[in-house]
Amino acid sequence: MFKLGELELLPLFAVPVGKIAMKQVTTEIKDFLINHEDVIVRPMSTSTNRNLNILDNPICAPLKKEITEQVHAFLHNCLGVSKKLDFRMTNSWVSRQDPGKDCWMHSHSNSLLSGVLYLQSTANSGRIIFHKRKHFDNVFSETLDITITSPNPITGNGWPVDPTQHSMVMFPSNLEHSVEINNSDQVRYSVAFNFFAYGVYGYDNVVQLEIK
User: Which of 8, 51, 68, 97 could form a disulfide with 42 if both were Cys (CB 3.0 to 4.6 A apart)?
Assistant: First the structure.
């Protein structure tokens, strides 16, 4: 809830995006991740045999555990998601973005919650931009072009989040996002991941779907 003078503004049905500062990744884990042969180079991958489960390596176990704990806290404590469903990390990969490169708009398929942890980044290495879904009329219909002089997370068509080093951003997998051009003189590395919910779906003790 926002308060503007005497006016209380309720951001109803907002898309949840969480950002949190994580512990500094150990040198051993960071070196393993950024030097791995399956690092995906943005915007195009140069790897023909990509490892999309890189955090499953035993070296990365402490990092995977921390990410999972923070994702569960976001889901259960912030969003109120039932603990009856078991959200598990389904895949993970490392991305490299060289100076002058960007990443086009996309979303993540076959997952429910996604995220990115910045291993090596600076303020000018390219913000992640979250884009308002087409036909998502939370304020005005897209059939009218209403000028917004001071965009905010409610009225904007897109919203940037800075790639603060050691921070992690979590968001719904179907939320489209892109990455700005890396305008720094440093290579940026990040590790991305997806989660999916396993267990029994239904209501009033009626099992409608079970995913094991």
Answer: 97
183 and 126 Cβ atoms separated by less than 8 Å: yes
Q: Where are the alpha helices (DSSP H) in the chain?
A: 27-34, 61-73
Phi, psi for 206 (deg, rounded to 5): -100, 115
Amino acid at 137: D
Q: Would you say residue 58 lies in a domain?
A: yes
Distance (Å, rounded) from C-alpha 177 to C-alpha 127? 10
DSSP annotation of 55: G
User: Is the pTM above the cut of 0.70?
Assistant: yes
Domain that holds residue 117: 15-44+51-200
pLDDT at 44 over 80: no
Does 126 fall in a domain?
yes
Asked whether residue 2 is domain-assigned, the answer is no
